């Protein structure tokens, strides 16, 4: 199998807080011969003149 990342939204930080909401989202899986596992994640990336930093948080895996 392959691992695919599906982006549902992205937003540049314009203040101390930001958000992206994705509702009623569907993911289609074709020609799968075994179980499918999905896991949500969010990455925040910040870049300044002196440093670049990113952090990613993961949800629990879901087996379909």
Reading side by side through the largest sheet, how are the strands ordered? 1-4
Number of helices: 0
Beta-strand residue percentage: 25-35%
Strand runs, count:
4
Beginning-to-end CA distance, first to last residue: 15 Å
Instruction: Report the average pLDDT across residues.
Output: 88
Judged by helices, strands and strand pairing, the structural class is mainly beta
Task: Give the helices and strands as they follow along the chain.
Answer: EEEE
Brief description of this entry?
By secondary structure, this protein is an all-beta fold.
Model description:
The chain has 64 residues and is mainly beta. It has no helices and four strands. The strands form two sheets. It has a two-stranded antiparallel ribbon with strand order 1-4. Strands 2-3 form a two-stranded antiparallel sheet. Strand 2 (41-47) and strand 3 form a beta hairpin. It is elongated, with a radius of gyration of 15 Å. The two termini are 15 Å apart.
Layout: helices, strands, pairs:
Elements: E1 37-38, E2 41-47, E3 52-58, E4 62-63
Structural key phrases:
single chain, 64 residues, mainly beta, two-stranded antiparallel ribbon, 4 strands
